Structure formats: structure tokens, C-alpha cells
Amino acid sequence: MAEAGVSAAEVVAETKRAGGGEAELRSPGWNESQLRSYQFQTRQIPRLQHSDPRAEELIDNEEPVVLTDTNLVHPALKWDLDYLKENIGSGDFSVYSANSHKFLYYDEKKMVNSKTFKPKSVRQEMKFPEFVEKLRDIEQRGAEERLYLQQTLNDTVGRKIVVDFLGFNWNWINRQQAKHGWGQLTSNLLLIGMEGNVTPAHYDEQQNFFAQIKGYKRCILFPPEQFECLYPYPVHHPCDRQSQVDFENPDLERFPNFKNVVGYETVVGPGDVLYIPMYWWHHIESLLDGGVTITVNFWYKGAPTPKRIEYPLKAHQKVAIMRNIEKMLGEALGSPQEVGPLLNTMIKGRYD
Ligand SMILES: O=C(O)CCC(=O)C(=O)O
């Protein structure tokens, strides 16, 4: 996938050859029994120190890598529910609740485009102490219900959280942003999940440094080249950018190319930072029996696209073009629902 220089697969092979084995390839603190099982193959995402020139090369090539020693969110490593309850302030937090472990993202603004779509998770706004109380109550009762707090950090946070935030390693991350020509930092999403929660595969149109703070998360990534294997919902659907394939029970008649999918995976733990390149699909699961997980991500606008188009197009550029065609068709027809059947005659299967 890398056009020049080192690739993720080469770094992993090299680590194994050097006798690094499991210790360098995975973080300690969890075991295989905490992972859900899927039918597809995966390779390991390399774990490297931030000063390793190969890490820089992978980021430059827009390939994923886990950085083990950035200190990016060092002051937040003490965060837990009690500390946050005390210090995060009195703002509102978006908390999704579901009766399944899968929290499929949906865009509420696009709900008007689909009369049949019924979200399986519901968003509620609440204060942080109410979230903690609900979560502890569910745990105590051993209830089926699950919660996932997903809230952009904003200026309602308390003084101690501001101090922690200012102590993040902005030096390192600002240098990354400049070096790779990325645009502005758009947001920091705080994610607090229950053990076993799953965010199904989707891609974002932003660069992401995904900083793990508490607990362990398994992250399975797929490059944009595997777009044809992952069958995203149509652009106008509330689940735009999400895969339609249920990884636990894939319907291979509807989604035959899914059998060719190959992932890159890792488990991140406290202090690890995973680079999730723009347009890379990612499926993320809080490990089973691993307790609550806390993550803060750093989303950046990608580098500006070159004025002159250069061929051959990269996979993500093709994706961007297809998305634009879908959007324009929807606008031209005045009814996004009609775009699917029309395109379906061209690209069989995606819009069934
Ligand atoms: O951690 C998760 O569950 C999802 C996070 C995610 O999708 C992201 O940071 O882009």
C-alpha cells in the first residue's frame, strides 16, 4: 500500500525476525479470550516508539501505527469515573443507550431521508453524575442495557480538566500536524464505554490520533482500497460512511466481496496512541470483561487536495468522487431515496 519506503507488514515482519515477538507487537494487560471472534483474517498494526523513523514514514504514507510513548494525554491517565464526576463540569453529555453491544453511528440530520430506518441506540443528553449513576445501576442489576458516552470536549469542563488538557503533549502533536500538512484540529471526542461495547466499521473524512486513557480497545482497520468489500450505506442514509455488513453474521449473498476483506488490528491500552488515517475503515471494541474504557481522539482536517488531479487516483480519491456523484444525483433528483435504486443498477448490491 505504501508507495515508497516501509509498510506496516514489513515493520511487523522485521520485529518478529528481530525476536521482538509478542512483547513488541502487543500491549500487556489483556488476553485473547477478551476478543470477539470474526471470520476474516487480520495482520498486526506495528507498535513503535514515536522517535522511530519508521513511525514517521508510516504516518507520511497514511498507514496506521500505534505509538507507545508520545505522552500525548499523560495528565489524563489518572482519569476515572470518580475523578471525571468531580471535575468535568456541569455541561451536557451525549450518552447513547442500546440493548445490543453494537453502537452503529447515525446522523440524526439525515433521518428525514429514510422512513424505514429505526436506530438501535438512542441519544440522551445528561449531566455527568447522572451518566455515572445510570452506568453503575446497570452494572449492579446485570441488565442488558448498555451506555456509550460520546461527547466533544468543550468549554464547560472544570478547571482541573482544563489543566490536564493544557498538559497534553501539544508540542508533539502540533509538530505532527505541521509535518503532514494537516488542517486544523476540529475536535476532541471523549468516549466512555462499557466493556464489550462495539463501534461497527466506518470511515471518517478526517485524520485521527486516537489516544487510549483507560482500559483496552481492539481496533480493526481496513484500507480505503477495501471499499468494495465493506459496502457502505448510501451517502444520504443516516448511516452514511458505516458498513452495512454485520461482522458477527455477514450476509455473503448480499455482500459477497466481504469474504475478501483483510484487516489490520491492534489492542490499545493506557498511553497508546493509534494513528487512524483518513478514509481508513475502523471497527472498535472495548474488550470483554475489561471494565470501563476511556478514550480521547484528536480529529484533524486532512491536507488540502492538490489543485491538479494526478493519475492514477488513490483509493480515497475515488471514494470522494463516488460520494460527490451520489450527492449530486440526490440533489438533481430532489429525492435521495431514488438515488439508491438508480445507482444499484450500476453497482450491484450496495443499495439493496
Ligand atoms: O472508540 C470508539 O468506539 C469509536 C471511535 C471512533 O470511531 C473514532 O475515533 O473515529
UniProtKB/TrEMBL annotation:
SMART domains: JmjC (SM00558). One of its GO terms (cellular component) is nucleus. Residues 145-315 form the JmjC domain. It catalyses: L-asparaginyl-[ankyrin-repeat domain protein] + 2-oxoglutarate + O2 = (3S)-3-hydroxy-L-asparaginyl-[ankyrin-repeat domain protein] + succinate + CO2; L-histidyl-[ankyrin-repeat domain protein] + 2-oxoglutarate + O2 = (3S)-3-hydroxy-L-histidyl-[ankyrin-repeat domain protein] + succinate + CO2; L-asparaginyl-[hypoxia-inducible factor alpha subunit] + 2-oxoglutarate + O2 = (3S)-3-hydroxy-L-asparaginyl-[hypoxia-inducible factor alpha subunit] + succinate + CO2; L-aspartyl-[ankyrin-repeat domain protein] + 2-oxoglutarate + O2 = (3S)-3-hydroxy-L-aspartyl-[ankyrin-repeat domain protein] + succinate + CO2. Gene3D superfamilies: Clavaminate synthase-like (1.10.287.1010), Jelly Rolls (2.60.120.10). GO terms for molecular function: [protein]-asparagine 3-dioxygenase activity; ankyrin repeat binding; metal ion binding; peptidyl-histidine dioxygenase activity. PANTHER family: HYPOXIA-INDUCIBLE FACTOR 1 ALPHA INHIBITOR-RELATED (PTHR12461), HYPOXIA-INDUCIBLE FACTOR 1-ALPHA INHIBITOR (PTHR12461:SF105). This is Hypoxia-inducible factor 1-alpha inhibitor.
